[in-house]
Design brief:
InterPro entries: AtsA-like_MBL-fold, Metallo-B-lactamas, RibonucZ/Hydroxyglut_hydro. Keywords: Hydrolase, Signal. Pfam families: Lactamase_B_2 (PF12706). This is Beta-lactamase domain protein. This protein is of the alpha/beta class and about 300 residues long. It has one domain: 4-Layer Sandwich (Metallo-beta-lactamase, Chain A). It has 11 helices and 14 strands. The strands form 2 sheets. Strands 6-5-4-3-2-1-14 form a 7-stranded mixed beta sheet. A hairpin with a 2-residue loop joins strand 2 and strand 3. The radius of gyration is 20 Å and the shape is globular. The chain starts with a helix and ends with a strand.
Length: about 300
């Protein structure tokens, strides 16, 4: 009886600490949209890119599609504050601006190494390591004059971490845990292309990114479980056929995903012509499953968890 009372007393004392430790310190974290469209040239918006801020500093870039680097500058972010780039995959509309970030960063005071994380490759796309070397390798790279950023002879070094991705590797993997930022990745189905989704945790807040995926692996609900924000790509309408429905999620699936994961806010992005004009229909389909806040994001919008 005495031991039971002691344990109960300890539980009461520790409960507030546990709640506080698990809580999201939303004032310290924000998500900014650097690009909210796909690869089309049609409405003056940038291709895919997202920026995570922690304690007033830009810390993580997720994807670097065309135009996103200009929005990075417009956001007031500093390249020298970044800890890492996360790439969902290496399609052009998710990665083409990366060398522009690096070149622009040459004129800053950055001295700390920079890490990029992305999936492995196949016949259609490079791995994270290959992406970096094909850009900047001496003699053989696309921009060999920038090789000092990967050979260690410059002011800082860019390193790559390749994460295996396939239908045979569906377990979640911790890929980064440093400076108050924790990143977990999982393979997602993007037709035959290696692709990753990410869960980023900082200051007790969780922001998850689907990247481009169809949902056929069904790995995202567990990864995004309890997220304060889920960033989901809405590139196709419900009646999409052909290759599009092998590459992207239908709105109905997005709603099911958000509901199953129990996310607190759903941000829709990566809109294309075929989906942007059907927002009312998309929202109606999502509402059949998910009743939380839903936002169709625009470039440079900023959200707190």
């Amino acid at each position: 009886m005495r031991i039971d009372r002691l344990m109960l007393g300890l539980a009461v004392l520790l409960a507030p600490l546990s709640i506080q430790a698990a809580g999201c310190e939303s004032g310290r974290v924000s998500l900014q949209m650097l690009g909210t469209r796909g690869p089309e040239l049609w409405d003056a918006r940038a291709s895919t890119g997202y920026l995570l801020w922690l304690d007033g500093k830009a810390r993580v870039v997720v994807d670097a599609g065309p135009g996103s680097v200009q929005n990075f500058e417009a956001s007031g972010a500093r390249y020298e504050d970044l800890s890492l780039f996360l790439f969902s995959h290496f399609h052009i509309d998710h990665s083409a601006d990366f060398p522009a970030y690096v070149k622009g960063g040459f004129f800053t005071g950055r001295k700390d190494d920079l890490l990029i994380i992305g999936p492995d490759g196949n016949d259609y796309l490079p791995s994270a390591d290959e992406f970096l070397t094909r850009l900047f390798a001496p003699r053989t790279g696309l921009y060999p004059y920038m090789s000092s950023f990967i050979d260690g002879s410059g002011a800082y070094r860019i390193r790559a971490k390749t994460v295996p991705s396939s239908y045979k590797l569906l377990d979640e993997r911790r890929v980064y845990d440093h400076n108050g930022i924790r990143v977990t990745a999982v393979s997602v189905h993007h037709a035959v292309l290696p692709a990753l989704a990410y869960r980023v945790e900082m200051a007790g807040c969780v922001i998850s990114f689907t990247g481009d995926m169809s949902g056929r692996f069904h790995t995202m609900p567990d990864l995004a479980k309890g997220s304060d924000i889920l960033v989901a790509h809405n590139a196709i309408p419900e009646d999409q056929t052909g290759a599009g429905q092998l590459l992207h999620m239908r709105p109905g699936y997005i709603g099911k995903l958000a509901a199953e994961a129990g996310v607190r806010k759903l941000i829709l992005t990566h809109l294309m012509k075929r989906s942007a004009g059907r927002r009312d229909e998309t929202l109606k389909l999502i509402r059949q499953h998910y009743q939380g806040p839903v936002v169709f994001a625009d470039d440079l919008q900023r959200f707190q968890p």
